[in-house]
Design a protein that fits this description.
By secondary structure, the chain is mostly beta strands. The chain has a single domain (about 1-315), classed as Methylamine Dehydrogenase, Chain H (7 Propeller). It is about 0% helix and about 50% strand. It contains no helices and 32 strands. It has strands at about 1-5, 5-10, 15-20, 30, 40, 45-50, 60, 70-75, 80-85, 90-95, 100-105, 110, 110-115, 115-120, 125-130, 135-140, 145-150, 165-170, 175-180, 185, 195-200, 205-210, 215-225, 225-230, 235-240, 250-255, 265, 270-275, 280-285, 295-300, 305-310, 310-315. The strands form eight sheets. It has a five-stranded mixed sheet, with no helix packed on it. The radius of gyration is 18 Å and the shape is globular. The protein starts with a strand and ends with a strand.
Length: about 325
């Protein structure tokens, strides 16, 4: 089912921009810790970076045996910063208190490196990840270091299985999006069974996923640029056509659910952050400078929206 919600443009809202050291460090998917500090991988610069919101100061650390593949970051309940090093094929943990790294090598599947992309913790503290190159989902037990993997099927005939995005519900459901084949999957870890949800367009590319406070799954398509939602209670898939800005099709990147139930995502074509209110079926566009190229996105506990772009990070605050 495809719906076309209504669109509005936002009133002026302060956007705070924080420049990073190099011209284009390649800032990826960020995470915000309990102190309100932003952590993000500098893929091109091969560093893990921390932004102090209060001072604007950026500090960086170089990961062990890094190969410019820091893709996604997340933070556990103890404040440790976790990240994937896709090119070096490991999961990493950084302790801000001791400033020490620990790595968890992933090995290979079907004679290919796993190539981790997205990471999420479940309610039990297990770390889930997509093994994009290995065609699998994985789970790391941070206490024991044990790694388990589940292969995923091909999304459609002729399309390689490339699980890319990931989200885990509070109920422990593991959902993921394929980079190929226009398909979303759900894994049952107990049986290893994967249920596939085909979106009707085999060219659709699922880029980012999140879970809202009601347990619904939201995702963005890089192409053809739709916002999607799956209700696990009914397994119903709803696709929303995102309005085109500048007479060009939308290209949707990071997505996050805010504490108030709104959904935020980055539209790179429009150079905007977009808020979607499910209860009103309405988009609100928050324009950024045309050269911003927003990529990663997260919402902190206070409802501030953080995003990364080509050479800087930004924060959208509300009174």
């Amino acid at each position: 089912m495809v719906l076309t919600p209504r669109m509005t443009f936002a009133r002026p809202t302060p956007v705070y921009r924080y420049a990073f050291g190099s011209t284009n460090p390649g800032l990826m998917q960020p995470a915000v810790d309990a102190q309100g500090q932003l952590w993000v991988g500098e893929m091109s610069a091969n560093r893990l970076a921390r932004l102090n919101r209060a001072t604007g100061q950026v500090r960086t650390w170089e990961p062990p045996e890094g190969k410019s593949g820091l893709m996604t970051t997340t933070i556990d309940k103890a404040g440790h910063v976790w990240f994937v090093e896709q090119n070096a094929n490991y999961l990493g943990r950084f302790d801000p208190a001791t400033q020490r790294f620990q790595t968890f090598p992933l090995g290979s599947l079907h004679q290919r490196p796993m190539g981790p992309q997205s990471v999420r913790f479940d309610a039990r503290g297990q770390l889930w990840f997509t093994a994009s190159s290995g065609g699998a989902l994985g789970q790391l037990d941070p206490l024991t270091g044990r790694i388990r993997t589940w292969p995923v099927p091909t999304p459609i005939s002729g399309a390689p299985p490339i699980p890319f995005s990931l989200t885990v519900t509070l109920a422990g459901q593991v959902w993921f999006g394929y980079l190929t084949g226009g398909t979303v999957g759900q894994l049952d870890p107990a049986s290893g069974h994967v249920t596939l949800f085909h979106l009707g367009d085999p060219q659709a590319t699922i880029f980012s996923m999140t879970t809202d406070r009601s347990g619904r799954i939201w995702f963005t398509e890089l192409l053809p640029g739709r916002l999607g939602m799956i209700d696990p209670a009914t397994n119903r898939v709803t696709l929303f056509s995102v309005p085109s800005i500048q007479n060009a099709p939308p290209a949707l990147y990071g997505v996050a659910a805010a504490p108030d139930g709104t959904i935020w995502f980055a539209d790179r074509t429009a150079s905007a952050l977009v808020r979607y209110r499910p209860d009103q079926a309405a988009y609100t566009f928050f324009a950024l400078p045309r050269a911003s190229a927003p990529y990663g996105l997260t919402v902190d506990a206070a409802g501030h929206v953080w995003f990364t772009s080509s050479g800087s990070a930004g924060e959208l605050r509300f009174p």
